[in-house]
Amino acid sequence: MAKSKYISFTAARLRKLTPGDTIQTYKDINKRGFQVRVHPSGKVTFEVYRKPRGSYAPVRVRIGYFPDMKLADASDRADEINALLNQGINPNQRAREIREQDAAENMTLAQGFERYIKAKQLSPATLNNYTRAIDRDMQDWKPKPLMGITREMVLTRYTEIEEAHGKTPAQRMAQTLRAVWNFCNDMADDGGMPYGICPVQILNKQRKAWSRTDSRARRIREEELPAWFEAVRAEGGKAGTYLEFLMLTGCRRREATSLRWEQIDFNKGTLTFLRTKNGTDHTLPMTKRVRELFKTRRKEDPHSTGPFRLDDPRKAIIRVMKASGTEFSSHDLRRSFTSLADLSGAGQYAIKAILNHATGNDVTGAHYAKYDDPRDLLAPLQKIEDYILSKAKAHDVEVLRVVK
For the chain, how big is the Rg over CA atoms in Å? Predict the structure, then answer.
């Protein structure tokens, strides 16, 4: 590395500097840290190079290019930089903070949301929920600067949504805004909070426990099964077999609707749900009635990519609720399966394995009562199915006919 040379800076002297094979550095003997660097290309750069007060490492602060920038102007700027360095302030860091602050002041909610969804690996369901909250509940905020969304605005909007549509959409709005806001803060290079405290914090004071979701315990009970199965079988088709499949397997609704025929192996008698909620694939054995449901769907719709490719089963659910007199949702069927499985005597560890629930800190479940082979689950799963179907025909044997 070439040794720096000390000269007295004048415009005439700087014009005479010639480039070499490497960068050459010339320091001004009259001003501390002020120097020029002559690059092999002939470009001449003004800069200050010295340690901030209290620091052991020097910093390089670029000022401009000669002769585009006059020497007098570069010298004045060097004085300003030296004043900051004398205070222990890194001018580069200060400039970065100013740029980040400018970016923060101009970042809109829409831009912040785009950055968030590009950086995060969100599940389709989460992305759909967040997009709905942004496009429906915060549509008028999208072009606003993120920092222009105040606590009062959040509190007012939360109350409006809660009164008009219920607590869940209001929660989703606040959770989406909080996720985007915190993400933008986390992206700050210096680890600071350029966007400040998220205005959703106001809900912690004014709407205590706003983010808490009431425990849901609705399920179809044994005495309701005959009427429910009769209504489901009367519905028939894709929606009817879908609802019965949920009741007999306890799977999640998206696991059922995303199931494709290549995930169903009739020879091995298995079905596999891909990328489930806990991030793993989950294989179950095929019980007798489930096999019949698959065969029925294959016969009814031979060109479909999967047995239950439904966009929205809610209309069918409403029809079944009216016909059976029993209110339920798709996820209620998972709870119903779990309760009925317990009553069948299938065993808690088998039920956990069927539902693909983590064993957590349960040593017995994690190391001893393991079901690594799907075939081990056939007996308990068939036991559960037989129990559910037996209760369903308690008042009407004809309910259990196979859908043609």
Answer: 34
